[in-house]
Structures
1.
Amino acid sequence: MVAVLVAGALVAYAKYRSYWDSIQRVDVQALVGRQPPKLNNAENILLIGSDTRVGQRGIGGSQGVIPGQRSDTLMLLHISPGHRRVTVVSIPRETMVPVLSCAASDGTTGQQAAPGEQELINAALNFGGPACTWKTVEAVTHIHLDHFVQLDFTGFEKIIDDLGGVNICLPVKVDDPLSGLNLSAGVHHVFGHEALAFWRTREDLGDGSDLERITRDQYLMAALVQGIVHSGLLSSPTKMLKIVGDATGAMATDTGLDQNTMLQIAESLRGVTIGSVQFITAPNVLWPPNPNDVEFKQPQADELFSAIQHDTLLPKAAKKTKKPTAPPVVDVTPSAAAPESPSPPPSISSLGHAAGGITANTHICQDRAAFTGPGG
């Protein structure tokens, strides 16, 4: 979706300028403070799905009156140097993180640092806006962020509609008044409203956890990527411009994500293949004080974040073997002639596989565990 949004900037620059003013702009750099070092020319973009109900009708079922906003969806989009691979890391919204000092921003009151205390990561958006979410993600991952894109429910629906809908998979009939999803079992091609309901539903599928919802959402994103590529959308200026126009009113970005940067990102993403787009959930475990929440699982989470920070690649020798009899290759052992040489660190791909990640060419109904009926 980000690829489509920014690709539209390549279409008709003069008309795009008229859309530019309707995007909410946030000066994040003035609020975040000192950032982790940028170690390469990879692009790291924080994707925030806001659950704000302001000005939105019929969204969220009985929850439509909830005030404020939280990051209902939080993902890190990593575009590797050379732009040959894209990694999308989902961070569960119920992840416990330190309470940091965040200035008032984007209509929020801000928050004071509380050493030793923790809060849900999705609360940072409500207390300090996208700048606070940015600052928190950098603090817990040590990954240098370059930009952010925030989209609300209305923007999500409009983009799905403009893309011509997307396929979803349901193992059983679902009638969830909380999300608004009401469909029979099977594969469905749905448009904005039902796609959003599927994105948000929890209670009527699996164990009702946010983690299973994330897994289903990743399959939906894979199906979306497949649809974008197969439809030839990226080569249709008219369609891209419509998507950009519909999304800008429901979209916020940092001031650094200017027209030239968008052009560069859009151009680089055009060469990415479906199989090189990988979706991963940040490794996590239940948070002991409250089993409804989670915390990052260590050392697995830090290993993944470090691999992204350094953009670690598999050694060439590890790519040769795909025979069933060969053990999976995660690392390369130093040769006997040079025992003092350290082994290369694990790659993003190998760590993503260990965390149960998928690629964008995966079929939406492949993972039965993610698509079981109520209670698993």
2.
Amino acid sequence: MRSIVERQQRVTPLELFFDLVFVYAVTQVTTMMSQDLTWRGVGRGVLVLAALWWAWTGYAWLTNMLEPEEGLPRAGMFGAMAAMLVAAIAVPGAFGSNAVLFGAAYVLVRLVNLALYAIAGRRDPDFVRAFVRFAPTAAIGPLLILAASFVEGWVRLALWVIAILALYSGPLLDRGQGWRLSPAHFAERYGLIVIIALGESIFAIGFATAGVVITPATIAAAVLGLAVIAALWWAYFDVFAVLAQQQLSATSGVTRARLARDCYSYLHMPMIAGIVLFALGLKITTHDVHQPLAVVPAVALCGGLSLYFFTHVLTRLRLVALIRRTTEERPGWIGPGRLAAAIGTLAAIPAAVALPALAALTLVAAVCWALIVWDLLHYREHRIQVREARP
């Protein structure tokens, strides 16, 4: 029996190429929500984002199991890219005129993923058993999304919700047995997708300012938006991502697979959703900086940031729980900073509704950078230790 050797290489050009299609899909989700600025519209956008995220994360795990740039896997990756592109084109109408197109393309994306998993497991009986456990839910979810395209109203929504629950429940059934991954490659892949999501926020600024008269207030909003995005980048990459990768590298076997599943596949999804919601709010804010935001854009702007920081808190709790179970160490880096930032940005929603949009954006930028200053001052020594120990 020959097991699959952990890949120690960096993210490949083909993986980055694949992620470009996902960038477009995420941009389309923001477009979808901006066309229907209601709770229903945002809810539908989050469901579509959840489906797209699970398709992407399936390929992130896949490329840890096989070399994507060799022979049949390369052809499969190109085929999946084509199907993902069609699904992305159909995103704005995923609950309307393009529902069938989106559903069919999404099924194809997932079927190619499962086929490549089968290739990856040809010489690994342990993974074959894992594949048999998760494959049913991985297939049922997309089929339910396709079925939803043939019905209307609450039945369509119900089928979508059931499909997402089916997709996300799959990894809980196999308990992480049979999966192998390279921590450095895996963490880098998810880190790059965070950068891609942050790039979507920058795109939102560009889309909002296209075709409008550029004023000093517009420039100020663009710069403040970039300041918030920079703070989000700093909050993730300065120490947070390094700590997560270190803990992933310190584990092995089932423990490593479960940690990767929880901290990356599951908890990165609300993190990405928070960035996308912020991008939606930023797009509306930058378009008209002098008027107060309506309730839905205000919740997107402030609540998206709150969701992002609160997910950081949950991820740290998951990592701390692992450290306390496996060592005598009592980590002191959980801290109140991110929880305070999550509460502070959420509490800014009433101000975002009452004040001009530019003032609301200034307020949330101040909260975000207060967190960065707190981290720099309060965790100065620990930050240096962590970054010096970077693999």
3.
Amino acid sequence: MEKALLTFLFADLAGFTALTETHGDDDAADVVARFYDLARTSLTDEARLIKTIGDAVMIVANQPPAAVSIALRLLAAARAEAGFPAVRAGLHSGSAVERLGDYFGATVNLAARVTAYARSDQILCTESVAESIRSLDIAVIHSAGTASFKNVAQPVALFELEDAQRHAMTHHEIDPVCRMGLDPDAAPAQLPFRERMYHFCSFACAQKFAQDPETYIKG
């Protein structure tokens, strides 16, 4: 079957397991449903939502610029949601095989692994995506070094994509316990640890952090 050249975007809720354990199954299910809605409303005519996978979405676009624009919009939408967890995303361009409405191949697999490598509230892409948008006024591109992935022969060069207007936005931080995004100025609790101030969405999260900070600041 002929392979198409496409750009694949995966995005998920960073720390979803922690959020479920902290806030409960019902709240977690509501968050996932809202995340799916945000993903759908972030789409353009050049892209499709292929499937939802637990707390993740898989989107395919005809060209890298469309996929990058969607990723930027999706993360911005998540940040704008009150009490919403951080989202992370990964993109890679290349060939893939379509069967029964889904896509398969090394390109898809690498896009998923780049996403899993990303930190909370971060968009990472491969060189194929970064080079395609470098001359366009879509995103600020930062080198993110290289990463080695299982069953990928060579280290992969990664790049972080950031909205050019991000620095002008309201300061945004992540609760280290449940991974929820929050405005530190409005956070109900905060605790110092190792010369840094951590902010929390609730006193319950602050209490868990106080009991074992090392568990929540790894990575």
4.
Amino acid sequence: MIIDAHQHFWQLSRGDYGWLTPELETLYRDFMPTDLAPHLDQHGIDGTILIQAAPTLAETEFLLEIADKNSFVLGVVGWVDFEATSAPYDIARLAEHPKLVGFRPMIQDIADDEWMLRPDLTPAFEAMIEADLTFDALVLPRHLPHLRQLLSHHPHLRTVIDHGAKPNIGSGKFDNWASDIAAIAKEGRAYCKLSGILTEAGSDWAISDVAPYAAHLFEHFGPERLVWGSDWPVLTLASNYDTWIETAASLILDGRSMEAVFGSNAVDLYRLTKR
């Protein structure tokens, strides 16, 4: 089974994608299931995890409607306002949908780097644990020490780090990111997504640019906790679906690891067998 564990859909007319502006030329249009389906068919991909792209409950409901109409969407990672007193209720209510598998606050866009450690967010994290949901950590390298602390506070919070925490591959920065990501991998049970790294490398990337970062993730999370995703259509800023799946496969050395990273790990991470 092959699963794309990180993809997006959006419809501009909905109007809640604050980050999505005309300056992002290739992304500034609708991306819907009919756009992705040919890629899934071409590569024999059995299903996807659909990830939120706007910080609204309305968008989460929109994604769940898409999931209801498209069987290849195996799960939806949505959004709730973790700061709201209603957060535990909202989490429990949305978790009743069989395809709701997790939540993702857009931490990379929050001004306070220590936001995730605020005490008033504890009820939201506890509600996620209670509902057996996955926390997608959309973080940058500077957030990793805080994420490490958060996970020590909530050791039962099932977590996946999106896009390897977006290392600054284009600038060749490695050491601090490498140290922090290794510490998280060693100390806890977090998963990590092998996704988004071509975008961080820039449009003129070469495989020699991304290979050390992928190798570091593979070394520390191992084939048991590394999960492949396309990050489509954001991927199109730097490459295309065909190239990325071929590149990712070339970075993984053996068939057993391929099976885990490209499929079974996503099943475990998002509890898909329970859905």
